[in-house]
Structure formats: C-alpha cells, structure tokens
Write a structure and sequence with these properties.
With 192 residues, the chain is an alpha+beta fold. It has one domain (11-179): Nuclear Transport Factor 2, Chain: A (Roll), CATH 3.10.450. The chain has helices spanning 19-44, 51-64, 71-77, 83-87; strands spanning 94-102, 107-115, 122-139, 145-148, 154-165, 174-179. Strands 1, 2, 3, 4, 5 and 6 form a 6-stranded antiparallel beta sheet that branches. Strand 2 and strand 3 form a beta hairpin. The radius of gyration is 19 Å and the shape is globular. The two termini are 34 Å apart. InterPro entries: mtLSU_mL45, NTF2-like_dom_sf, Tim44-like_dom.
Length: 192
C-alpha cells in the first residue's frame, strides 16, 4: 500500500482539546488534503468512472461463486499481492458466503496516485469504506462447521483498497488489500 489509510477509532470523535483528539484531526486533515490532490489528478484523466461498476461486479462474482472456484475470474478481480492472501488455507474448506445488503453506501475515504520505478508507471489506489450485512460459514473437509454460521447475519465494516494501473486506459480496478484497524474487535476463534 502506498500510504495506508488509518481509520478513526469508532464513530465517536475525540475532543479537539485533548492531545489525541488534536493529533487525530491533524492526521485526518493531512490525509484528506493528499486525497483531494490525488483525486484532482485522477479526475483530469477521467479514471474514476468504473469504480462503482467494479464494486457491483465484485459483489456479484463472490455471491455467485459459493459452489465453485474460478481461478481466472478471481485473478481478474484481485492483484497479484492480494491473491495468495485470499486463497491461503482454503484448499480443503467449503466457504458459504452471502451478501445480504449494504447498511451504508460504499464511500471513498482515501485516494492515492503515485509512480512506481519511473515517472511513466502511474498506479492509483482507492480505499473504500464498506458497511454491509453478510453471512459467512466455513466448513472443514469433513463438513464440520469451523467458523460463523449460515443462519446469523453479521454487520461487517471493511476498508478495502482497490488498485489500478493508470497508464492503461482499459485497465480495471482490482482488490489490492484490506486495512484492519487496531481498534477492530478480534475475530472469532476457529473451532477445531
């Protein structure tokens, strides 16, 4: 990640009179200024038009892929950095996932544009805040439930980083990573 986004802790803001609150506001101001600058360059090249279409395609693909694994389709939706993290440890497991609804509309919270290796290689990264309701159940190779459940929906708050090679006019936004805040509650332990 070029400049990882630091999500503010919870919805409640710290008091601007305290040291931590002042530090949080200064950091937010810096991040929003850098995002505005990167957003200006992206809009001048007409690069942001496909973002909403890609988010819909991602949700549709993952929702339909409950019963099979399409390696080529997954490679087209995620970057080379993200692919091993997504498939590691899932070889003999069955994953049942359903997207139920968006509790809030996906919102862009962080935009970065930077050149890699030389000035001609421009990459753009967009961090999107997604608050949705989902169902996830993970079964081991013998069909025993390891994590989650198929009956209980959960509210999920995620910060997903999408990346695009900006030089290619036909390039698509792909998932590059996920930001897990320090204040996020720990995951449920896997039942063995």
């Amino acid at each position: 990640l070029m400049d990882p986004y630091v999500p503010p802790e919870g919805d409640a803001r710290l008091s601007s009179l305290s040291r931590d609150g002042l530090r949080q506001q200064v950091q937010k101001l810096r991040q929003s200024a850098a995002s505005q600058l990167a957003n200006f360059w992206g809009k001048s090249e007409n690069l942001w038009g496909e973002k909403q279409e890609f988010l819909g395609e991602k949700q549709e693909f993952v929702g339909k892929s409950r019963n099979y694994f399409n390696k080529q389709k997954l490679h087209s939706l995620v970057t080379e950095r993200c692919y091993p993290d997504m498939v590691r440890g899932n070889r003999y497991r069955t994953i049942r996932w359903r997207f139920l609804e968006s509790l809030e509309a996906p919102r862009v919270v962080h935009v970065r544009c930077d050149s890699v290796m030389n000035r001609g290689n421009l990459y753009g990264q967009v961090t999107v805040r997604m608050h949705s309701r989902q169902i996830l159940a993970i079964y081991d190779r013998f069909g025993r439930l390891m994590c989650g459940g198929e009956e209980v929906p959960r509210d999920v708050l995620e910060y997903i980083v999408f990346e695009r090679y900006l030089v290619n006019p036909f390039g698509t936004w792909r998932v590059h990573g996920k930001i897990v805040p320090e204040w996020a509650p720990p995951k449920d332990p896997i039942v063995k």
